[in-house]
Prior knowledge:
138 residues, alpha+beta, six-stranded mixed beta sheet, two-stranded antiparallel ribbon, 4 helices, 8 strands, 20% helix, globular, disordered C terminus
Amino acid sequence: MVHRQIGGVLADSGVQKGYDLVCPSGRRVQVKYLANPAGRWRNEHTITFSSETDDYGLVFFEGFELSGILVFPRETLGAICAALKKKHPNQEHVLQFTQVNFKRILSSQAEFEQLGVKLFVPNENKTDEMPPTDSLNA
């Protein structure tokens, strides 16, 4: 799904250390998913940037439905944490991501896009398709 949205080349190995695809710009993207029931989430996710990761893509499923994809850049993770009012340590490399954070980003898309976050949400008519987007060349 992330590959389809941002393009690039999949890593040579399915267990490639640190990243799963390389964007046309050369940025290496680690891809993970977070699945939760509809309504209140039971699971959260800790985003951790390794030295091999430039961007971190997180695919969200709620109630077995695709609810969105967020791609976070390494360079602005500290600013993203600050915008989300996070209090955990090591915010330049780690983001403890919650449902509240997901809703905040969805409701303030322009603010987080300025921080380099790429957001892809399903089309209203078909939940398995995302709108066309530019690749992560910036």
